[in-house]
Amino acid sequence: MVVLTGAGISTDSGIPDYRGPDSPPRTPMTYQQFIGDPEFRRRYWARNHVGWRYMDAARPNAGHRALAELERLGVVAGVITQNVDLLHTKAGSRQVIDLHGSYAQVRCLDCGTRMSRMTLADHLELINPGFAAASVTGLEVAPDADAVVEDIEGFRMVDCAHCGGLLKPDIVYFGENVPPDRVAAAYALVDSAEVILIAGSSLTVLSGRRFVHRVARRGGTVLIVNRGPTRSDSLAARAVHAGCSPILSGLAERFGNRRTDR
Predict the structure, then answer these.
(1) DSSP label of 27
(2) Catalytic residues
(3) How far apart are CA 54 and CA 21, in angstroms?
(4) What is the spatial distance between Cα 240 and Cα 224, in angstroms, rounded to a whole number?
(5) 94-105 pLDDT tens trace
(6) Helix/strand number for the chain, H first, E second
(7) Per DSSP, which regions of the chain are E strands?
(8) How many CB atoms within 10 Å of residue 14?
């Protein structure tokens, strides 16, 4: 099988999702907002300067570890994740397609130069000393590492050191296209599988839902584990409305026992 994961698999690691039953209303940033409004962009970088550390400190939960184990057992061919938290890789999964990119990289929109988020953090801290440390009380962080920080007075941004262009987290924002080579790699993985398992995604966004439709159109099996209904429940051979960690852990245990029995 191939597994498509969303923010719901990471909630047990302390990272909230966008659309879960208990999630507060969120309005994710769009690409046009980011590139079109300097003040909006400054506010985003101020919040991200705090929030990315929270994301970086997050650790895989039982659901992530179960998928890594299922890959080791030969059950899972790979994971396509809509998340940017890198928790599948941290858990030990080897075949991971980060469909929407990663919080840990930054790129210049003009010259394409990339740098680590840690490197940018060092630059931002030099010109905004103490800002991050003063903003961590009662922190609420969205799945894209955007922290709720109200006071951004005096926060300064930095531009690309190579060309002076706009820096952006290497994350696919709403209104932005997933890179074609990444989509092609995901389709290749999906086409090699008999089953697609959706874990922790409401399938609201087409960038993930298209893979489910592709499997369903060719007669493959669709399985869903999510805390609430999804937009593709009607395509599923079985949809379980529950948390990912216990279900995936049970699945890994069952397949592990089968291997032992042999």
Answers:
(1) -
(2) 100
(3) 23
(4) 6
(5) 999 999 999 999
(6) 8, 9
(7) 2-5, 78-81, 96-98, 101-108, 114-116, 167-171, 195-199, 221-226, 238-241
(8) 13
Q: Three-state SS for 239?
A: strand
List b or e across 112-131, with b for residues whose CB sees 16 or more CB atoms inside 10 angstroms: eeebebeebbeebeeebeeb
Amino acid in position 207: S
Q: Where are the alpha helices (DSSP H) in 58-205?
A: 62-72, 87-91, 117-127, 180-191
Domain residue spans of the chain: 2-261
Mean pLDDT of 192-204: 96
- In this prediction, residues 117-138 reach a mean pLDDT of 81
**The token pair that represents 108 in the structure block:** 């210049």
**Helix, strand, coil percent content, the chain, rounded in steps of 5:** 40, 20, 40
Give the integer Cα–Cα distance in Å for 136 and 142.
14
Contact 95, 22 (CB under 8 A): no
Nearest CA among 60, 63, 103, 106 for reference residue 84: 103
* Backbone torsions φ then ψ of 122, nearest 5 degrees: -60, -40
Helix (H, G, I), strand (E, B) or coil at 202: coil
pLDDT at site 139: 55
pLDDT of 154 > 70? The answer is yes
Query: Which CATH fold topology does 2-261 show?
Result: Rossmann fold (3.40.50)
